[in-house]
Automatic annotation (TrEMBL):
Domain SIS: 43-182, 215-356
UniProt keyword Ribonucleoprotein, yes or no: no
Gene name of this polypeptide: glmS
GO cellular component: cytosol
Name of this protein: Glutamine--fructose-6-phosphate aminotransferase [isomerizing]
Keywords on record: Aminotransferase, Cytoplasm, Glutamine amidotransferase, Repeat, Transferase
């Protein structure tokens, strides 16, 4: 059942190239520039006329929502707000007629997300679901939706659900962008081509496994760990930290790299490992200077970089190379070594990887 892997989590990490392919199977025709998602097609006017998109989710799905915020704003030029379902539902949220709500949930059973959907519907919003489990409560409660088609995710720590959610949300953003004419045609085609190459590049990112395992053995006893990223990779920093916390029981925090100087930098000393997500992207020079700030305070740097990088390599204690892609798609690659890092550390600490203490696969309590 684990297909030769020691744990479901590792199996699911390795399934990602195929899971992502399954997410776009039958939905894209790259040479013709076609993206087709039935749920989006049926409601295209609603998306095109949206004054705002409100994304509601919890945990890792909320992190996918944050990545989608950057993507929707860039591709479709629609303002996006990303809300924890639990916070959204218990306040008195302002919902306007042209707001579109997107609910993201792997299980489709998360109680807070379900309740937030009901509230949004009561207030007249159109609610679109992004779920993995077919026929789940959330898929039934939403007006329309699209499945990620990641296949069953058994490990409690979410891995392939996250990357397939981002893939699906990227397809949605591309479709809506095209309908609105929000990005130049050439860029649209380039993103589609890049997206089609992602499974192959995820495969390459998985080949960092042994290097990541070595790094894991060096830091497995660290009591704390920081994760930093900027732009599209800020949510990846949050997700990397969540993975480490939940399966290794190491205290970890994700931060936007530029926020370091507003407080967290006080934590840095020679015992603090800092994972920096630093692919070659916009504001690369800024992240290089963030790394310098940490090095000058003796922090240990584990950097995720683009193949061929030299500047970060010269500064970092360890680098993990991933293939090059466009900024917007980079989270699909930078996430991979972070999943592996938390996995190996958890195994080395004898933690129950697939069933971490105090956690359940679907959180049906409020
Ligand atoms: C973390 C994790 C949780 C879930 C969260 C939402 O690895 O699995 O944070 O992401 O409980 O679950 P879904 O997506 O099923 O609504």
């Amino acid at each position: 059942e684990k297909g030769g892997f020691d744990h479901f989590m590792l199996k699911e990490i390795y399934e990602q190239p195929n899971a992502i392919k399954d997410t776009f199977r039958g939905r894209i025709r790259v040479s013709e520039g076609i993206v087709k998602l039935a749920g989006v097609e049926d409601n295209l006017q609603k998306f095109m006329n949206a004054d705002r998109i409100i994304i509601i989710a919890c945990g890792t799905s909320w992190h996918a929502g944050l990545v989608a915020e950057y993507i929707f704003e860039e591709f479709a030029r629609i303002p996006v707000e990303v809300e924890y379902a639990s916070e959204f539902r218990y306040r008195n949220p302002v919902i306007r007629p042209n707001d579109v709500v997107i609910a993201i949930s792997q299980s489709g059973e998360t109680a807070d997300t379900l309740a937030a959907i009901k509230l949004a519907k009561e207030r007249g919003a159109f609610v679109f679901g992004v779920c993995n489990v077919v026929g789940s409560s959330i898929s039934r409660e939403t007006h329309s939706g699209a499945y990620t088609h990641a296949g069953p995710e058994i490990g409690v720590a979410s891995t392939k659900a996250f990357t397939t959610q981002i893939t699906l949300l990227t397809l949605m953003a591309l479709r809506i962008s095209r309908a609105k004419g929000a990005m130049p045609r050439a860029d649209y085609f380039r993103y589609l081509q890049e997206l089609e190459m992602i499974p192959e590049k995820v495969e390459q990112a998985l080949q960092t496994n042994l290097e990541v395992q070595t790094i894991a053995s060096i830091y497995k006893d660290a009591p704390n760990c920081l994760y930093l990223g900027r732009g599209y990779n800020f949510p990846v920093a949050l997700e990397g930290a969540l993975k480490l916390k939940e399966i290794s029981y190491i205290h970890a925090e994700g931060y936007p790299a530029a926020e370091m100087k507003h407080g967290p930098i006080a934590l840095i000393d020679e015992r603090m490992p800092v994972v920096v997500i630093a692919p070659k992207q916009e504001h690369y020079d800024k992240i290089v200077s963030n790394i310098q700030e940490i090095k000058s305070r003796s922090g240990k740097i584990i950097a995720i970089v683009t193949k061929g990088d030299t500047q970060v390599k010269a500064l970092a204690d360890h680098v993990i190379e991933i293939p090059e892609t466009s900024d917007a798609l980079s989270p699909l690659l930078t996430t991979i070594p972070l999943q592996l890092l938390s996995y190996h550390i958890a195994v080395m600490r004898n933690c129950n990887v697939d069933q971490p203490r105090n956690l359940a696969k679907s959180v049906t309590v409020e």
